[in-house]
């Protein structure tokens, strides 16, 4: 019986090892967002390939685990090649393509490699990164912000934090977008009024690509003046339900993804730090702990309409272990910051003949609870603040011709701010103590904006 069990275990591992991987994804027109049918998708240096269906979807099966180059070709479109596509046998690898139309010249046909995609309207200060590039970035620790901190013109205000200083600007002048939704700060234990923190709460496993601009970005990104980081999340797998459990250097988590119905998919992740268990056992007086949750639901209502629901929540708090007088004294020097961040949004996309229109509805909520106590656990400093922002945005993209492109939009925000602040007493140079009363603020604001971009391409190099 023992030999039979061992044989079954070895056979199971053998069958699992022979299970090959799958590459799947969607091919769309870069201008209109419509699916591109009957495009040829091949794995270079292999005999494997397939063609996209009427919905622009393709699937290549029977791929041995490894790293590949995937190329898409179609008459009337530029050839695009993506490199460093890692395939494993645990789940399908999603690779999406955006193809750009090109004029046909039958008398003189030139085939280009197309390893790098470039938008003629993008300036040289815009960098695009795929998931694999971010994951393998040296010193990135699978953190989107850390992977970008090594770019030219970008620096960190202090080591170990994601407070980016872009071309001399302040960390508060950076804009973060996730799937088109504006997020005030995507970092745990962020600084109020800025955009930094020790680590990002965006789960890299669900990031499809990212675009980072250090200047010259479009007016559609609002009133930030230093940089713009736009992160696009991928859709959930459409074949079956799958998951992944991870244990990292400072956290553990669980990822789930899969189809909800024939036309919808879901991704979900939950992560938690476990440093509080280690630090308490080591005798530390305090330790920060955090949780984060990410949810995205995509539903193809029809060939024209697509609905997406997005929500992300981050819970940050500082635990104190005031077991004795020494720890109470040491903790009196610590400014503890508890935060609850939530961003929930809904987007609806409608495809049109020469472009598309998007509607965004979102709510950002950040609850700050910052406090510092003395050795007798009496509060010295206290800041309880609530920042809420409700936003509606309409975006419209249209291509009148090969040379003309128009992007227009408008948005409206309702902002609520509520705070209760206690400040320590002020001691003058004459050793006089001036008490400062607690300040309470409660205010509401409205903010509106509209933008229009008109781009015209005279030649391939002059726009």
Give the SSE layout:
Layout: H1 2-18, E1 21-29, E2 40-43, E3 49-51, E4 57-63, E5 66-73, E6 80-87, E7 93-94, E8 97-99, E9 126-130, H2 131-135, H3 144-148, E10 154-156, E11 164-166, E12 174-178, E13 181-183, E14 207-213, E15 227-233, E16 242-247, E17 251-261, E18 264-273, H4 275-282, E19 286-300, E20 305-320, H5 325-331, E21 336-351, E22 355-373, E23 379-398, E24 404-422, E25 426-427, E26 433-434, E27 439-456
Parallel strand pairs: 1-7, 1-8, 12-15
Antiparallel strand pairs: 1-4, 2-3, 2-5, 5-6, 9-14, 10-11, 12-13, 14-15, 16-17, 17-18, 18-19, 19-20, 20-21, 21-22, 22-23, 23-24, 24-27, 25-26
Task: Give a quick set of tags describing it.
5 helices, ten-stranded antiparallel β-sheet, 463 residues, 9% helix, five-stranded mixed β-sheet, mainly beta
């Amino acid at each position: 019986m023992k030999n039979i069990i061992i044989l079954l275990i070895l056979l199971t591992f053998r069958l699992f090892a022979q299970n090959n991987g799958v590459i799947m994804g969607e091919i769309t027109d870069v201008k209109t967002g419509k699916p591109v049918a009957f495009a040829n998708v091949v794995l270079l240096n292999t005999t494997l390939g397939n063609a996209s269906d009427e919905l622009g979807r393709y699937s290549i099966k029977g791929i041995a685990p490894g790293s590949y180059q995937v190329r898409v070709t179609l008459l009337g479109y530029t050839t695009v090649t993506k490199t460093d596509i890692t395939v494993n046998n645990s789940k399908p690898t999603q690779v999406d393509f955006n193809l750009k139309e090109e004029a046909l010249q039958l008398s003189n046909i030139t085939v280009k490699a197309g390893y790098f995609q470039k938008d003629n309207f993008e300036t040289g200060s815009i960098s695009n990164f795929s998931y694999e590039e971010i994951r393998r970035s040296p010193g990135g620790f699978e953190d989107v912000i850390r992977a970008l901190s090594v770019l030219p013109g970008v620096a960190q205000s202090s080591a170990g934090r994601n407070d980016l200083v872009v071309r001399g600007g302040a960390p508060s002048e950076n804009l973060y977008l996730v799937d088109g939704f504006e997020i005030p700060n995507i970092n745990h234990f962020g600084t109020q009024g800025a955009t930094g923190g020790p680590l990002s709460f965006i789960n890299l496993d669900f990031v499809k690509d990212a675009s980072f601009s250090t200047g010259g970005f479009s007016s559609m990104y609002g009133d930030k003046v230093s940089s713009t980081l736009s992160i696009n999340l991928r859709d959930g797998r459409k074949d079956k339900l799958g998951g992944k459990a991870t244990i990292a250097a400072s956290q553990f988590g669980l990822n789930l993804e899969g189809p909800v119905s024939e036309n919808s998919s879901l991704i979900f992740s939950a992560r938690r730090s476990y440093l509080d268990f280690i630090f308490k056992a080591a005798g530390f007086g305090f330790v920060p702990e955090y949780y984060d949750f990410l949810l995205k639901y995509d539903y193809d209502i029809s060939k024209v309409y697509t609905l997406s629901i997005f929500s992300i929540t981050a819970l940050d708090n500082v635990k104190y272990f005031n077991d004795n007088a020494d720890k109470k004294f040491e903790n009196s020097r610590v400014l503890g910051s508890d935060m609850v961040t939530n961003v929930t949004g809904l987007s609806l996309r409608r495809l049109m003949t020469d472009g598309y229109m998007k509607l965004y509805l979102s709510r950002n909520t950040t609850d700050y609870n910052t406090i510092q106590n003395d050795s007798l656990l009496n509060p010295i400093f206290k800041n309880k603040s609530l920042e809420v922002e409700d936003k509606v945005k309409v975006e419209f993209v249209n291509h009148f011709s090969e040379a003309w492109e128009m992007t227009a939009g408008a948005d409206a925000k309702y902002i609520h701010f509520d705070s209760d602040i206690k400040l320590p007493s002020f001691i003058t140079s004459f050793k006089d103590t001036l008490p400062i009363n607690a300040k309470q603020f409660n205010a509401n604001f409205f903010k509106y904006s509209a933008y229009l971009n008109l781009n015209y391409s005279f030649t391939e190099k002059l726009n």
